[in-house]
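fyi for ur records
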Amino acid sequence: MFRRARELLHQFEQIPVINHALDRHYSKEFAHATNVNWFKGVYPDFATASADAPASKPLGYDNDAPASADMYRFRMQAISPCDYPVAFWLNRLMQPNQALLDFGGHVGVLYYALQKYLNFPEPFEWRIYDVPAVTREGRRFAAENGNPPHLSFVDDLGQSGELDWVLFSGSLQYVEESLSSIVARLPSRPTHLLINMLPVHPRESYVTLQNISTAFCPYRIYGAEDLLEEIKELKGEVVDQWRNDDKECVIPYHSDHSLNHYRGMLVRLDPLH
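which gave:
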């Protein structure tokens, strides 16, 4: 009975005039909500999503609001269920004298959490690339915590050095640049791409708008075929794939574009000759 009532409510919400009214009401709440992780709308590209962002908060993580750089500190205390595939593959494959670029790694959240679970080989370099406001806070936090020996920060992607790994942990969706373009800009070709917590739609690519509490962010949803096409363009082999069932992207009044899980994969890149 409850399921039938829910289906009827969903059908009612899809009536165009009702859907439009509900969406307008939600947009007003979305503009001012704090302490939330909300999504709104479906857009063809970053520019359209950005143009529709309310003026009540900054756009993106690179802003002077301290809270944007302070986010996710709770995730340093222990890894989440969605982090276990990353821990598994690093533990299995990382070797001494390797370097990993944590693309969009914030202040080093995952590095600090993984220290409690993994024994990093010696030597091993964990380099973080992020927006300037976050990188500044990352360096400050590292100095406050004794400058962990494996950890460093990169201001320019082109200066990230020789790399064996590139990690995209919940970060690829925040950049307009494609995966293949990012890899092409690196000064060296990595052996492995470790992609995790990526929103992937089974049929199409699009952009939504996220309220991260401190700012609004255009947020890319990859179409499954588009993602595989980029990996093919990179001459990559998908070694493993998994679901992040503890992650979801609910876009109110856009049920066909909402996701009840995210995806992850390990990709091995063929060396270019």
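The longest strand covers residues 236-244. thats all i got for now
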